[in-house]
Specification:
Pdz3 Domain; single chain; 31 strands; mainly beta; Cathepsin D, subunit A, domain 1; about 45% strand; ten-stranded mixed sheet; 3 domains; globular
Length: about 375
């Protein structure tokens, strides 16, 4: 698999390709991708700017994003504003006409539209490219070779791949995204394929109770979901039953379950990069079909709150917002509403993000009385 530095070198070579080498004259266009920091990266050039930029490939998004400050530095023209719905609700965004977007293969998108955002999309990210990258042509996302391959005239041969029940969805104004059928712990559902989500599986609020994964006695790690909306979504990370996609089974995925009733995307949830990077993904555009095959990539390291704690800030105070069932924090008697003293917020987050096996020292104040607690961070799910 390539790294991001290699992507920039490939993108710099794009202007050296013959002018005739375009999407209209090549049967297969190969562009390098890299998986780093729980993101899929690709490099491209915007308009007449000679510098290649890193973009995140986000198949869960229906519109591409660009860093608002970068758009202004490049003097990109604002052509309107619109509301977008994402994790956390609805937010209003300016729209920029970005001119052409050029990839290393010579593929050019002539009139690229971006929504401007001040959200952090990842280290050094200029923006995020939406599902349209993968749903405009027959395409492969090959995470083993590190390639996005586009077939302007159609792929033709699907030997070695398994066609799965799926459908392409569009909301008229923006690009097309992919919903695929899957079975999670016996629950059949439709799941959005979302390479922009770093985790494994998310169950939306509408399916939380039906999944059986939101229950008082099930061990969980507290979490919150965030996205282009301003609000945050309360979630629990649990160990789920088998996830079956076509003929591929993932025995014990980590599942982030949104609180019952929480508004969400289309479908019952989404499948994130932690699962998708272990699949070969191919789109067939004319019938709106997805083909898959298991690949040889290992499962990425699992990350969640190994303490079982979620913290909130209330003015100058740090408050325990949630305590996961079955966690080290629960075993130590820490409760929701307890306060954490004698520590800065940034240091608290650093300690809580340490590797499994680390010790996490805290000063806990409950009922006006303080006590020192040391938790052993444990992968308890």
């Amino acid at each position: 698999m390539l790294d991001r530095r290699t992507l920039l070198g490939a993108a710099l070579a794009a202007p050296l390709l013959p002018a005739a080498v375009t999407a209209q004259t090549r049967r297969k266009l190969v562009n390098s991708i890299a998986v780093e920091d729980s993101r899929v990266w690709i490099a491209a050039q915007i308009g007449s700017d000679p510098k290649p930029r890193y973009f995140v490939i986000d198949t869960g998004a229906n519109v591409s994003l660009i860093d608002d400050a970068l758009a202004k530095r490049l003097a990109m023209k604002v052509i309107g504003q619109s509301d977008l719905l994402g994790v956390g609700g609805v937010s209003r965004f300016p729209y920029y006409g970005g001119g052409k977007l050029t990839f290393a293969s010579g593929l050019r998108v002539p009139n690229m539209l971006f929504a401007g955002t001040d959200a952090r999309l990842g280290r050094d990210a200029a923006g995020a490219l939406s599902a349209g990258l993968f749903t405009s042509y027959d395409s492969d996302l090959d995470f083993v070779k590190g390639e996005w391959r586009a077939y302007p005239d159609g792929r033709g041969d699907f030997t070695g791949l398994n066609r799965i029940p799926s459908r392409f969805i569009s909301d008229r104004m923006y690009g097309v995204r992919i919903l695929a059928d899957a079975v999670l712990g016996g629950m059949s559902g439709e799941f959005l394929l979302d390479t922009g989500a770093p985790g494994q599986v998310v169950v939306e609020g509408r399916a939380a109770l039906r999944s059986g994964l939101w229950s008082a006695d099930r061990p969980y790690a507290p979490a919150q979901g965030s996205g282009i909306g301003r609000a945050r979504v309360k979630r629990r990370i649990v160990r789920g039953g088998p996830l079956v996609i076509g003929d591929v089974t993932f025995p014990r995925p980590l599942v982030a379950v949104s609180a019952p009733g929480t508004p969400g995307h289309d479908g019952d949830g989404f499948i994130g990069l932690g699962i998708l990077e272990r699949l070969h993904l191919t789109t067939q555009i004319k019938p709106g079909t997805l083909w898959i095959a298991a690949n040889t990539r290992p499962a990425p390291a699992e990350r969640y709150s190994f303490s079982g704690l979620w913290f909130d800030r209330e003015g100058d105070d740090i408050v325990v917002g949630d305590v996961g069932t079955g966690s080290p924090a629960a075993a130590a008697g820490i409760e929701v509403g307890d306060r954490v003293s004698s520590i800065l917020w940034e240091e608290l987050l650093r300690r809580n993000g340490q590797a499994a096996g680390s010790d996490m020292a805290l000063r806990i104040v409950s009922g006006g009385k303080g006590r020192d607690v040391t938790l052993k961070l444990t992968p308890y799910l």
